[in-house]
Each structure stands twice: as structure tokens, then as C-alpha cells.
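hey can u check if this looks right to u? its 400 residues, i copy pasted from the old doc so theres a chance i mangled smth
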Amino acid sequence: MEGTRRSWPSFAAATGGLCAMLIGSSMPTPLFPVYGAAFHLGTLGITVLFSVYTLVVIPALLLLGPVSDTKGRREVLAPALGLSAVYAVIFAVANGPAWLFVAQAIEGVAMGALQGTAAPTLVEYDPRRDRRRASTVASTATMGAAAVGLLLSGALAQYGPLGRRLPYIVEIGLLTAAFVAVLVLLPKRRNRRPWRPRRPTVPAEIRRPFILASMSAFVAWAVGGLYLALVPSFVATALHEPNLLVAAAIVALMMGTSAVVQAVARSWPSRRVQLAGVATMAVGVAAIAVTTHVKVLPLLVVATLLTGGGHGLAFMGSLGDVNEIAPDDRKADVVASYYVVVYAATALPVIGVGVLAGVLGLLPAVSIFSYVVLAVCIAGFVGLLAERDEAREWSEREAA
């Protein structure tokens, strides 16, 4: 283990690499309406383009996530940054939809490697060896950097000289700087061990609380996926606001609110955080449903603040719950299974909305999605309350 003198630079390099990649991963979102118009993708095409990335992340996470434990943090982070730069180059030069789909798949592989490596790297090189602080940095950086990427992309594409290409040129510069920092400041792994891919599983004794926690995560990231894939198109078509920066700001507001809420509520008990998150999410998606009827931007802003707050609480609380219930010798397996749920939630419901939009139109599809998520929120809230009461009764019987 490196000493404190090396820990601060290593911690900063890992954080910089995480932020650089997450900034780039969110850059296509404000530009989806532009790609849809330029390449005749339609709503379903846009949702599939978005979902390619998230669906590729799942097997990449399962295969590449544990690699850094055996091969080294630098040995995984540096190639991930290199792959992300390839993705940015392809987006910058793309002149047809096939280029975009290939780029999204490449970024999915890169992010799968990153997600399994970034948090352990931050924990390992935190100067005070503070696991809670390192985990908080990882989760808030995830949402905060994504918000920065959204705003940067929208502003540069709307007002910059090269249109949709300029954001990726800037991203290539950020990734190059992060790549150099990782190579220089993160040490090589001296004792490498053999690596074999493993299929994550959830022990039978924790499956019920795991399912409840996963339900909270599924709701949070289903709404997150809707924002990342379709809210820019919703703003442009339903609210008649063509400015790319406005659409980017709406999605960034959701991500930024989630990051702030996670930082503020990091010391709360995970079950209380989940309950508050699911309840807030229910109010937020109800507001989204109303927005599809009244079509006013201020109401969408209110809905975004609510869903962002609910997202942050539900995500942080459910992940905290999973970490608490997972046995020490199975923690990696259980957390990997949890992230499979997260990425499936980000992709699959949005594809369903895209299919519905092709049949009914975007507004009815988003409205139906909101009502379904509202029902899941209510069911999840009831289940969490029952689980909390049962745990309390068990504790009282043990005390007696």
C-alpha cells in the first residue's frame, strides 16, 4: 500500500479519470434530437441508441469489473480512458447512424471497466483510508460529472463554432490529461494474480431485502434513463424549446440535484433514505405525468427537482442497504448483481417508451411510463415499510 505522500496524487488522478469519463458519457444526451433529425432515427431509434451503451455496460461490468482486484487499478483505468477517447473520436467524425451505435458500444465497454474499478481505487488511495468518504466521492462525482458533461455539451453545440463536434474535441482533451495523470500518479500493481470471470449471485437468505432495494434502484434509474434518453426530445417537441442548452440544463438539474442530495444525506440510515427517496420519486413522476398534459416548462423544472432528489435518495439508500445486508465474503457478487439491475433499469424501460412512442406518440408514451413508475413507487414504499416493521419486531424479540 502506498503511503500518504503518494495517496493524495493517486486519489486525485483516480477522481480525475472518473470525472473525465463520466463527463463524456453524458455528452450525447443533449444532442439526441440533433442526431435524430440528421440521421432520421425517430424516437425508437434514439432510445435504442441510448440503450446500446447501457446494455453493453452490463456484460462489460460482469467481465471487467473485478479485473482491477487482480491486475491493478492503473492497469484497468488507463485502457478504459483510452477506449473512451476512441468513443469521443468516433462521435466527433460520425456521418451516419452506424458510427454512433459503434461508439456507444465502445463507451459501454469502457464504462463497465471504470465502474468496477473507480470506487475501489478511491477507497484504496484515500489518504485517511476513509471508506465512507471515498464512496461518497465516487457517488457524487458520478452524478456531478454527468451534469457537467450535459451542460458543456449543450453550450458548446448550441453556441460553439463546430456544432455537435466541438463537445467531443473538448472531451478528447480532458481524457488525454486524465490518461497522463493516471499513468504518472497511479502506481503499477506489483503482485498480479490470475483472473477468471465470475457470475454474480445473491445468497438466498438476503434475496427479499435485496429485491426491495433493487426495486428502489430500478425506479430511480428508470426515471434517470428517461431523462438521459428522451427528455431533450420532449423539451424540443412538446415544449417547443429548440435550444440545446435548455434541454441539457433540465437533465443536468436532475443529475445535479441527485448529487447534492446524496452529499447532504450521506449519514442518514439507508432504510430511511430509501423510503424518503421512493416517496419523493412518486411525487416527481406524478408531476411529469401532469407536464405531458399542460406542457409548461416551469412544471417540468419542479418535476425535475423532485425526481432528482428522489433519485439521489433512492439510489444511495438502496446501495447502502445492499452493502449492509451483503455477507463480507460475497459483497462483490451482491453489489455486481445490484448494478446489473441499475443498468437494466436505465435501458429496458426507455426502449419500451420508445416503442410506445412509435405507436402512440411521445407525450402519451411518457405519460403511461409515469403512471407505471408511480405504481411501482407505491408498491415499493409499502414493501419497504413492511420490511422495516418486520426488522423492528425481530430486534425487539431479540432484545427481550
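The chain has a mean pLDDT of 85.
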